[in-house]
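Example 9 (inverse folding). The structure is encoded as follows.
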């Protein structure tokens, strides 16, 4: 079976646990993602996405989404022309944007760079993700 290995960084969150960080590209511009196996969808920071897409067409998603920390926040649907992790290329991805400033504010307090999104269960499941803490890699399978 063919697969793509993506290096991951394991970030210690002040002795209170760990976050997994993957580097990727949104429309050929480098982006940082938290890997969250508990997140149902991959989401992008509504403010940071403006660095990757000029004037995205946001349409409000029906209902509220459970945000990080358990709060309900508004989310928006928009389209990303190309999302890439290593050699895995995803085109015309129907994305979800929400305010991830709570994560980025927490990261700033512990001197970590901001993230542009959360890599969630939709893409992890679709591409049969296997995460190795030991090897610091994530394996993704392209869809043919």
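The amino acid assigned to each position is listed next.
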């Amino acid at each position: 079976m063919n697969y793509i290995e993506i290096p991951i960084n394991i970030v210690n969150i002040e002795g209170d646990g760990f976050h997994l960080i993957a580097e990727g590209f949104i429309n050929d511009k480098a982006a940082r993602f938290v890997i969250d196996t508990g997140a149902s969808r991959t989401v992008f920071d509504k403010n940071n996405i403006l660095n990757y897409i000029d004037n995205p067409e946001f349409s409000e998603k029906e209902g509220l989404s459970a945000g990080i920390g358990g709060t309900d926040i508004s989310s928006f649907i928009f389209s990303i022309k190309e999302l890439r992790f290593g050699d895995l290329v995803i085109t015309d991805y129907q994305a979800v944007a929400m305010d991830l400033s709570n994560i980025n504010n927490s990261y700033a307090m512990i001197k970590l760079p901001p993230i542009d999104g959360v890599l969630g269960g939709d893409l992890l499941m679709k591409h049969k993700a296997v995460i190795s803490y030991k090897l610091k890699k994530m394996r993704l399978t392209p869809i043919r």
